[in-house]
Every structure is written in structure tokens, then in C-alpha cells.
């Protein structure tokens, strides 16, 4: 990618970010996230807990949440998870509870898919309403399981780093900085894979893997910077005190809304990159040439000379 391409890509990305009304899309996603985050984490913890145990998986989730949104926001999510995971009495109540749990967990990905379709300019295909709904929910549930798998990978790598750190500290003191950098790199890679999965799988259009990695990496980088920025803002501002008892909930909502903006900004960059420099470049150039040809024909009518 040449230097002048970067400016053009960013300019086009911001232009389409405004045209697609991304702030409104992010607000809708934040709304659905608040209702889906608890059941989604319960399923993810269950998947990762199959190997490491539920307590270890829940502890890793708690640590990640505290690093992302602070103690207050993490406490809100922990209370939601604890309330949603209370055992039901009776087989029927348990089955109904599991179905409601799965349905609620997929709501955020269903909304995310609709927003990504808007960004990719996907026209909805006429399908059977029930079949389309079931297909969308199954795809969303697969994404929830994917998050559980990534949590499992994160736990494995954290355990390996902890064991390596204990071993190396006995041999060569001063490895704390190196291990911290490795941990940051692993977190960046895991987040990049998650964003790449979202950009590749959820839109109802063909998206090449080679088109999603740059956008996913950019989003992961912005997400890391944004995590520091929103942490400083929430630490300095009086958001929590301004809303009283609902202050922690307001902090969580603000963080989710901010993260949704970054997610959609990365999606806009991905689709712009695919059309300008990626797999859809030839398709865009062909469509542009066709439009220019039609415009030239309309602007240049046949001229006949009149006799003097």
C-alpha cells in the first residue's frame, strides 16, 4: 500500500461512516448488547470451562472486564451473569431457561449483522421469514461459541505464560517487562482474530479473508488505544456520580457505545479497502467504467450539420 492510498482510504472511510449513520447503528448495538452480554458470557464461560473449569474461566472474564471497563462496570456485568445463571427448578423450567438464554445471547449478533449489511450495501434477499430468522440466529450462536473458543485459547496462553514466567524468573530476573509485552501481543492477536471473524462471517455477502485482516488489525489497535482513552475519561469524569445508583450502568453503556463506534469504523474501513485495493477492486473499476460510459452517451447526443 502506497502512502497516498492511506489518506484516500481514510477519507472514503469517514465519508461512508457518516453516510451510513454509524452513530445510530452503534446506539442500537449498545442497546442489544446490554440485554445479551450476560447470557453470551454464560455460554462462553461454559465452553471454556469444559477444559479449565468454570471458576477459572469466570476469573479470566472478570480480569478482562476489569481491565476494559473498570471495577464498577465489571461489577454490573458480574451481577447480571450471576442473576441469569441461577439454577431453575424442574426440567421444563430448565429447558425454557436454556432456550431463552441462547435466544438472548444471539440478539447482539443479529443486530450486528443487520448493521454490517448496511455498511456493505447488502440488499435483503426475499426469503421465508422463519427460515431466515432461524439461519440468522444459528449463525449468531456460532459466533457466541467462537467467543468461547477464543476465551479458551486466551486461558491456555495465559497459563503457559504464567508457567514460563515462573520458570524464567528463577533463572533470569527482569523478565516481567518481556512477559507483559508478550501478553499484550497475545491480547492484540486474539482481538484481531475476533474482529476478523465478525467482518468475514456475519455480513450476508462474500467477503475474502485477505480483505478482513488489515481492517481487523486496525480495529484491534484502535480498540487498545480506545481502552486507555475511555479508561482515562471515566476515571477523570463524574459520569458515575452524576447518575447516582445507576452510575455503574451508565459507565457500562458509555463503554459499549464507544466500542461499537470503533467496531463499525473498522467495518467501514474493511469494505472500503476491499473495493479500492482488495478483492473487489476490479468489480468497482468495471462498475465505474460502465457508469462513465453511460454518462458520456447521455451527455453527447448525435449532432447533424444543417445546410447553410
Could you describe the 3D structure shown?
This protein is mostly helical. It has one domain (15-287). The chain contains ten helices and no strands. The chain has helices at residues 3-19, 22-52, 54-84, 91-119, 129-171, 176-201, 209-236, 239-242, 247-276, 281-299. Helix 1 crosses helix 9, helix 2 packs across helix 4 and helix 2 (22-52) packs across helix 9 (247-276). The protein is globular and about 80 Å long. The chain crosses the membrane at residues 29-53, 91-112, 141-169, 181-201, 213-234, 241-258. Pfam families: Virul_fac_BrkB (PF03631). Residues 299-308 have a biased composition (Basic and acidic residues).
Index terms:
308 residues; disordered C terminus; single chain; mainly alpha
Secondary structure elements and pairings:
Blueprint: H1 3-19, H2 22-52, H3 54-84, H4 91-119, H5 129-171, H6 176-201, H7 209-236, H8 239-242, H9 247-276, H10 281-299
Helix pairs in contact: 1-9, 2-3, 2-4, 2-5, 2-9, 3-7, 3-9, 4-5, 5-6, 6-7, 7-9
Amino acid at each position: 500500500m502506497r502512502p497516498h492510498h492511506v489518506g484516500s482510504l481514510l477519507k472514503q472511510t469517514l465519508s461512508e461512516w457518516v453516510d451510513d449513520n454509524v452513530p445510530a447503528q452503534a446506539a442500537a448495538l449498545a442497546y442489544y448488547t446490554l440485554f445479551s452480554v450476560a447470557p453470551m458470557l454464560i455460554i462462553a464461560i461454559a465452553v471454556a470451562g469444559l477444559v479449565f473449569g468454570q471458576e477459572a474461566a469466570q476469573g479470566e472474564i472478570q480480569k478482562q472486564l476489569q481491565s476494559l471497563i473498570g471495577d464498577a462496570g465489571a461489577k454490573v456485568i458480574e451481577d447480571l451473569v450471576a442473576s441469569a445463571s441461577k439454577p431453575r427448578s424442574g426440567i421444563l423450567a430448565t429447558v425454557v431457561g436454556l432456550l431463552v438464554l441462547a435466544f438472548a445471547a444471539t440478539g447482539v449478533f443479529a443486530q450486528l449483522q443487520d448493521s454490517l449489511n448496511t455498511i456493505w450495501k447488502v440488499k435483503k434477499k426475499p426469503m421465508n421469514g422463519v427460515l431466515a430468522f432461524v439461519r440468522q440466529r444459528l449463525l449468531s450462536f456460532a459466533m457466541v461459541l467462537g467467543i468461547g473458543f477464543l476465551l479458551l485459547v486466551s486461558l491456555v496462553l495465559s497459563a503457559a505464560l504464567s508457567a514460563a514466567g515462573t520458570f524464567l524468573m528463577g533463572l533470569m530476573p527482569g523478565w516481567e517487562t518481556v512477559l507483559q509485552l508478550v501478553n499484550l501481543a497475545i491480547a492484540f492477536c486474539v482481538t484481531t482474530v475476533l474482529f476478523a471473524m465478525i467482518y468475514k462471517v456475519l455480513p450476508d455477502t462474500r467477503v475474502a479473508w485477505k480483505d478482513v485482516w488489515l481492517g481487523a488489525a486496525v480495529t484491534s489497535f484502535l480498540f487498545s488505544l480506545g481502552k486507555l482513552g475511555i479508561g482515562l475519561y471515566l476515571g477523570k469524569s463524574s459520569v458515575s456520580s452524576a447518575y447516582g445508583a445507576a452510575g455503574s450502568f451508565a459507565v457500562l453503556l458509555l463503554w459499549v457505545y464507544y466500542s461499537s463506534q470503533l467496531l463499525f469504523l473498522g467495518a467501514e474501513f474493511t469494505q472500503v479497502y476491499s473495493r479500492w485495493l482488495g478483492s473487489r477492486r476490479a468489480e468497482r473499476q468495471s462498475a465505474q467504467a460502465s457508469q462513465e460510459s453511460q454518462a458520456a452517451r447521455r451527455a453527447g447526443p448525435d449532432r447533424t450539420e444543417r445546410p447553410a
